[in-house]
Amino acid sequence: MPQKILPVKPLELSLRVLYEDEYVAAVHKPAGIEVSGNKFRTLANALSQNLEASILLDATIPQPVHRLDYATTGIVLVGKTASSIRALNKLFEEKKIVKTYYAITIGNMKPNGRIETAIDGKPSQSDYEVMKSVLSERFGSLNLVRLHPKTGRRHQLRKHLFSIGNPILGDRDYPLDGLILKGKGLYLHAYSLEFEHPFTKQIIRISDELPKKFKKIFDYNTT
Q1: Could you read off the pLDDT tens digit of each residue along the chain, which spans 223 residues?
Q2: Dist CA 144 CA 135 (whole Å)
Q3: One-character DSSP codes across the chain
Q4: Which CATH number fits the domain that encloses residue 35?
Q5: Which residue in 38, 64, 94, 119 has its CB near the most CB atoms, within 10 A?
Q6: Does residue 114 lie in a domain region?
Q7: What's the whole-model pTM score?
Q8: Per DSSP, what are the bridge partners of residue 206?
Q9: Which of 61, 94, 127 marks a domain boundary?
Q10: Which of 145, 142, 176, 180 is nearest to 162 (CA)?
Q11: Enzyme catalytic residues
């Protein structure tokens, strides 16, 4: 659990708040920042500047309850009280939070499928559906893919898509030879979360619109 102290110097970083109540919040994570860690410039260190302090008795420093990769954009769920942080962690452990991602991938793909390649020796599962495809002079074909990871391994979606020969556009860690797109970042976005609120018991659905760079390639409405 986080200690009730703030960084000596607050990180001034404006975040887009997607949802907030006294227990939990959800914010948009931009590309190029870690969610948490030993660095000063992290999403975690900017949360207190962007969220309202909880009035509940066990209120604490807002804390992310899961991670996104440095280059990935999208929703990060945050706990604002000690009990909500524990409850949200339990929901993730029990796989009771439905996660939806979008990615742009390279190469011809089947319309849908399930990838079950083990990651670091552990069972892993990702389901995907190709929403739209366009021809590309450089890459042959680009696909807008909706993804549902059923497990939460490190770099799971990136490794899974690479394993079937369809790496994510802009992925420098898992590329195909000669098909690295530089300077545009990773085309992977955490689009939505759905779960039962651990305290109000309401069904919470949070979404974060696709980045502009996605829309420059695909004219697609996610709603």
Answers
A1: 554 444 456 678 999 999 999 999 999 999 999 999 888 889 999 999 999 999 999 999 999 999 999 999 999 999 999 999 999 999 999 999 999 999 999 999 999 999 999 999 999 999 999 999 999 888 889 999 999 999 989 999 999 999 999 999 999 888 877 677 676 889 999 999 999 999 999 999 999 999 999 999 998 887 7
A2: 12
A3: ---S---SS-------EEEE-SSEEEEEEPSS-BSSSSSSSBHHHHHHHHSPPP-STTEEEEEESS---TT-EEEEEEEEEHHHHHHHHHHHHTT-SEEEEEEEEES---SEEEE---BTTB---EEEEEEEEEEETTTEEEEEEEEEESS--TTHHHHHHHHTT-PBTT-SSS--TT-PPPSS---EEEEEEEEE-TTT-PEEEEE-PPPHHHHTT------
A4: 3.30.2350.10
A5: 64
A6: yes
A7: 0.92
A8: 193
A9: 94
A10: 176
A11: 69
The residue with tokens 């549902």 is 148
Token pair listed for 39: 């660095």
